[in-house]
């Protein structure tokens, strides 16, 4: 009975099992390395970008070449043209990958402007009724701004005796100051023009200065001025017919801005915006 059990029971002894794992280990390592290689290929090669040089693109490139050179490109020239296009495309994508546009303000602004143009599109022309309604609702936009006419004697630096100069001017005596590039009589200058040329404080001083009497010196962004205001014109509402084209342009611009704002709102949902405090 005992002999029969010894003969039939041939199970693998426990001490022999580690040898099986030792024999299988190289195969498992091979599978692991192979899997890593496949994963690496999928990450590097499986996601390769495609540069598709379509037939229409080639025709455009060859047409541009013919226009500039005066003859159709032969086979060798065509290959060179296509290779050059591919090289430029690779460099362009590389510049995007490296985010070079962030370090060049001009490139960044051109890209933004182009995106605005593509998103904003070309809104339809507003109707006559819509333009008249816009004119009525935005009357302040179509008012001719106040104008001031004045004479001035200009000094680059504060004169030594400003009181004597002012008295002389009020008595009608000619006073020679420094040359001024716009001259010494400035008729019918709009408020915005005066502010941009001399500064806002100078404009406010002119608005308060007495008519037909010398005053000063008034300091500006350019120097010091003795001034005599000769006329002031109040803001005037411009007639609809005289600003019709401006209204159309303003409405078109506003519709385009609305379209851009709507699209930016939609796109912003895809971003996590963090504003550093």
From TrEMBL:
EC number: 5.2.1.8
Residue stretches spanning the membrane: 24-44
UniProt keyword annotation of Transmembrane helix present: yes
Pfam families tied to this protein: Rotamase_2 (PF13145)
Keywords tagged on the record: Isomerase, Membrane, Rotamase, Transmembrane, Transmembrane helix
Domain PpiC: 126-244
Catalytic activity: [protein]-peptidylproline (omega=180) = [protein]-peptidylproline (omega=0)
Gene Ontology MF term list: peptidyl-prolyl cis-trans isomerase activity
Broad enzyme group: isomerase
PANTHER family, per database record: PEPTIDYL-PROLYL CIS-TRANS ISOMERASE HP_0175-RELATED, PEPTIDYLPROLYL ISOMERASE
Family: Belongs to the PpiC/parvulin rotamase family.
Descriptive protein name: peptidylprolyl isomerase
Classification lineage: Bacteria, Pseudomonadati, Pseudomonadota, Alphaproteobacteria, Acetobacterales
């Amino acid at each position: 009975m005992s002999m029969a059990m010894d003969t039939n029971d041939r199970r693998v002894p426990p001490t022999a099992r580690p040898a099986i794992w030792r024999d299988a280990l190289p195969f498992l390592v091979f599978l692991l390395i192979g899997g890593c290689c496949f994963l690496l290929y999928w990450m590097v090669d499986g996601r390769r970008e495609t540069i598709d040089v379509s037939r229409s693109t080639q025709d455009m490139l060859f047409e541009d070449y013919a226009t500039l050179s005066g003859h159709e490109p032969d086979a060798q020239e065509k290959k060179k043209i296509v290779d050059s296009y591919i090289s430029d495309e690779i460099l362009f994508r590389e510049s995007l990958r490296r985010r070079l546009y962030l370090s060049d303000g001009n490139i960044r602004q051109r890209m933004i402007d182009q995106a605005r143009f593509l998103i904003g599109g070309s809104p339809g022309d507003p109707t006559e009724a819509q333009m008249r309604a816009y004119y009525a609702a935005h009357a302040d936009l179509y008012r001719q701004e106040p104008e001031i006419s004045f004479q001035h004697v200009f000094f680059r630096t504060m004169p030594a005796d400003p009181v004597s100069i002012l008295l002389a001017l009020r008595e009608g005596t000619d006073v020679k100051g420094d040359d001024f590039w716009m001259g010494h009589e400035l008729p019918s200058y709009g408020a915005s023009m005066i502010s941009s040329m001399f500064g806002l404080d100078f404009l406010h001083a002119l608005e308060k200065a007495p008519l037909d009497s010398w005053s000063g010196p008034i300091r500006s962004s350019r120097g010091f001025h003795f001034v005599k205001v000769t006329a002031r014109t109040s803001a005037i509402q411009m007639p609809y017919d005289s600003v019709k084209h401006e209204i159309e342009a303003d409405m078109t611009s506003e519709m385009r801005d609305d379209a851009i704002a709507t699209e930016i709102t939609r796109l912003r949902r895809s971003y996590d915006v963090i504003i550093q405090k």
